[in-house]
Structures are given as C-alpha cells and as structure tokens.
Amino acid sequence: MKFFTVILPLFCLFAATCEANQEIEQTKKMKYELTPLEYSSSALEPWIDTRTVDLHHYKHHAAYVDKLNAALASAPTFSFGGSLGELLANLDTVPEAIRGAVRNNGGGAWNHTFYWRSLAPANMSGEPSDTLMEAIRRDFGSFEAFKTKMTAAAVSQFGSGWAWLCVDQDGNLKIVSTPNQDSPAMGGCVGMKGLIPILAIDVWEHAYYLKYQNRRQEYAEAIWNIINWKRVSERFDCALKTQSISL
Ligand SMILES: [Fe+2]
Q1: pLDDT digits (tens, 9 = 90+) for 32-76
Q2: pTM
Q3: Residue 32 belongs to some domain of the structure
Q4: Which of 10, 31, 143, 242 has its CA 20 to 30 A from that of 214?
Q5: Other Cβ atoms within 10 Å of 224 Cβ, number
Q6: Which residues constitute the domain of residue 178?
C-alpha cells in the first residue's frame, strides 16, 4: 500500500521532470524558426500569386527550417550559438556528417528569408536610393541594362538556384548565380568570399511554376515590379559601411 501512496507518486514526478527536461533540450535544439512574412500572401499579386506565396513560404521555406533543425538535433555534440547567417559563414566548422544537410537546408532557410525581405507589394516597391542608382549606372551602364543582366542570370541558371546582386570587397556591384541553395552568405565555403548579397531572385520552379509554368523569363521580368528597393538600398549602405550582410 505504501508503494502506491509514496513511491509511485515520486516515480511519476521524476518521470514527468525527465520528460520536461527532454522537451527543454529539444526546444534548445529547435533553434532556428521560420521568419514570418512582412506582408500578406496576396500582397505580391498579380506578379506572384497568393497560392505560390502560401506554398513557397509555409511549405517549402518551412521545410528547410525543419530539416535544418533536424540535422542539428542529430549531432548532439555540435552546438552553435550564433545566427543562421553566422552558421552558414562557418560551414567548415559543422561536422561533416551533417554539413551537407546544413548547407542545403540552412541555405534554403536563410536564402528564403533574404528573398522574402527583398520583395514588397508593388505600390511600396519604390526605387533604388541615389547612392545605389549611381553605383548601378557606374557598374552596368544603366538601370535597364542592370535589370536585363540580372534577369538573364536568373533565366540562365541551369536547374534550381538563385540570382544575386552583390557588393564586392571594393564596393563594386556584381551579379552572380548559385546552384541549389548555395548562397553568398556561405562566403569562402562556396568560393564566394567577400561577396555581400543585397538582392536575391529565387529561380527554383516552386517560386513561379503555378503561375508561369516553364516561363521562367516571364517570372524573372515580373519580379522587378515588386522589389523592395528601400531594403536593397539599406543593404547596399550597410555593405559599404560595415562590410557585412544585412537581412
Ligand atoms: Fe524557393
């Protein structure tokens, strides 16, 4: 009788405490979270449709975050206390067993946050700051020539990947593309040391296929209507002043 009145409750309390601790540990490992959109799913209409934004953000982007956390949880001896951007910049310190998963899914998580924050509803798109526009004209000849060149980089990226506008170590603007979920945020780990991204175009099919099917060119041209130029200009200023990436 004594067992049921004294020992069993104590055992249950101990078990409950262990479960709680496990939950805390799991919460600690589930460090990275899906960054919320700054606008509604319909805000990019008609250039990017509501259903695409919903699926892209709440399914694809969310899946990268979940898989990143799962990869990190599978390596209990590895802990990293920094931001996701810092984790990607230090990919070479990630255990080899999960490095590929962190590269793909961490890259996917970070790139998409950067992408969503590169966009804005058409009526809030604005235009590049005077400083950025001056640099665009200096490095590409004209704003139109720049857009044509970046659109071409997006369209010609073979398979899935990204087109990026970056600032190099001399303050010059460069257009580059990356395969899969590779990112300038990974720096020297993917041969992109010193390139600071300020604008991204996602050219994975999931970014445009529902509305544009195989017409990537149309999507890459349409996206110029919804660029958040205020944000891109701020990133440019940050890159020049601090040599660092601004989300
Ligand atoms: Fe995507």
Answers
A1: 999 999 999 999 999 999 999 999 999 999 999 999 999 999 998
A2: 0.88
A3: no
A4: 143
A5: 14
A6: 48-247
